[in-house]
Amino acid sequence: MKLHLANVSGLNIFSGYGDGYVIVNQERYVDNMIVLPEQIVEHWPVSTINQLDMAHFDPLLAVQPEIILLGTGAALQFPDKALMKNILARGIGLEVMDTQAACRTYNILTAEERHVAAAIFI
Fold first, then answer.
1. CA gap 106, 15 in Å, rounded
2. 32, containing H or E segment
């Protein structure tokens, strides 16, 4: 599916997604990744939700986003509750959703000039 959004010049925006990929600024990605409005971290080194720990969120926490969107792939899966509590205790919101919903939500929040980060499982 292609996504369209205006008024986000120069920022990273999801421009499409499908089974096994996302497209950011017209470039296709097939590996888990982190997307920030001004930075992309390719090849996020985690393969399953169950493997997530705080170290995997270091690139996100370093930029102190207002909210982290965790896109868990085709199906909604929740990470460990202790991990979620640890992120929330830092004053950072964490929303867990399937990857397609995370892409759409990221674009909306970026257009609203919110300081958002997306951690995406493909």
1. 11
2. none
Domain ranges of the chain: 14-121
Contact of 109 with 116, CB cutoff 8 Å: yes
DSSP letters for 41-88:
E-S-S--SGGG--GGGGHHHHTT--SEEEEEESSS-----HHHHHHHH
pTM of the predicted model over 0.85: yes
Q: What angle do CA 32, 99, 45 make, to 5 degrees?
A: 15
Q: How far is CA 120 from each of CA 6, 7, 65, 96, rounded to the nearest angstrom?
A: 22, 23, 15, 10
Please give the mean pLDDT across all residues of the chain.
93
Tally Cβ neighbours within 10 Å of residue 99.
25
The hierarchical CATH code for the domain 14-121 is: 3.40.1230.10
* Whether 47 contacts 32, CB under 8 Å: yes
The two structure tokens encoding residue 112: 């609203």
Q: Which two tokens stand for residue 10?
A: 């120069």
